[in-house]
Amino acid sequence: MFKLGLIGCGNMGEAIISGLLKAKWSTPEEIIISTKTSARSDKIKHAYGVVVSTNAEVAQKAAIIILAVKPNMYREVIQEIVPFLDETKVLVSITPSFSLETLRHLSGGKAQVVRAMPNTPAKVGFGMTGVTFEKETSQDTRQEILTMFSCLGKVLEVPEDMMKVVGSLSGSAPAFIELFMKAMVDAGVSYGMSPEDAHLLVVQTVLGTAQLAASTQKPFASMIDDVCSKGGSTIRGISSLKENQFEEMIHRAVEKTTERFIEMNQESKVFSEK
Ligand SMILES: NC(=O)c1ccc[n+]([C@@H]2O[C@H](COP(=O)([O-])OP(=O)(O)OC[C@H]3O[C@@H](n4cnc5c(N)ncnc54)[C@H](OP(=O)(O)O)[C@@H]3O)[C@@H](O)[C@H]2O)c1
Fold it and tell me: pLDDT per residue over 94-116, tens digit each?
């Protein structure tokens, strides 16, 4: 029996494998994967030494099965593997689109189902994963899944109705932060700075600020005060952001993203009942 199986191994699948192997959660020989094209699975096998097979064999031979395909493939892939599932298997969805109820329905109630929401910084070991379990899930399974995702960074167990917020605040948020960083780099370049220099300044500053926030108990408002001095330059920039409703804009972006997570859950529910 393999410790882990991945059906699909693109961006997120590779980030998971890389993180788990780096953390020595398993050996490469304990991971089995399948992808749509052999070109992709051969590449992953070559890079990490994992075992490559078919979707059916992954489902048959792995104790934990992560569905790392795009949401539009979930239904088809689950249908394909249902015959190989049983109550000892843990089926992990990493897409925001399916509720535990829909996953249970699609898998015919044959496996334990778990929802997890990782993010792209998992690729470099600084991921944030939100996880939610069915209430029947055993303590051992919960621990095993939480330990597995903690190899990719940090992990937070939440009630299922908070998964949409996890989706916004950590799943989608790398793109929000990247947009902010792009705007900062563009602003630097508009003053004639080279893109490389502006990139270095912005990336290191975001990295450093995140480290600082992680190492202090101070609320963000107080951290902002630490950078601002009366009549200084930072306060002028902060005032401009506030006048332009920066915080409200972020709030609205989170609201829109969360709304979309709710819609996707509804759409997949209707679809799975057809
Ligand atoms: N990217 C993110 O930031 C992020 C964050 C959190 C969660 N997620 C979730 O992670 C999942 C995967 O996203 P991704 O960005 O990693 O997608 P991706 O890079 O497009 O990878 C999808 C993988 O699925 C494989 N695949 C497609 N059809 C298949 C089939 N019938 N059987 C087996 N494998 C199949 C593809 O194989 P080939 O390579 O051979 O085509 C590819 O390896 C999605 O459900 C997404 O919602 C993504």
Answer: 998 899 999 999 999 999 999 99
pLDDT score recorded for residue 95:
93
Q: Which residue has the least CA distance to atom 21 on ligand 1?
A: 10
Question: Is residue 38 pLDDT above 60, yes or no?
Answer: yes
* Mean of pLDDT values over 10-36: 95
Give Cα separations from 263 to 69, 252, 258, 266, 267 (angstroms): 20, 16, 9, 5, 6
- Count other Cβ atoms within 10 Å, centred on residue 56: 14
Closest to 3 measured CA to CA, from 84, 89, 117, 103: 89
Residues framing ligand 1 (Cβ under 6 A): 7-13, 34-37, 40, 55, 68-71, 73, 77, 94-95, 117-120, 171
pLDDT over threshold 90, residue 271: no
Show the domains of the chain with their CATH numbers: 2-157 (3.40.50.720), 167-261 (1.10.3730.10)
> What are the structure tokens assigned to 158, written together?
């939440």
CA 184 to chain centre: 25
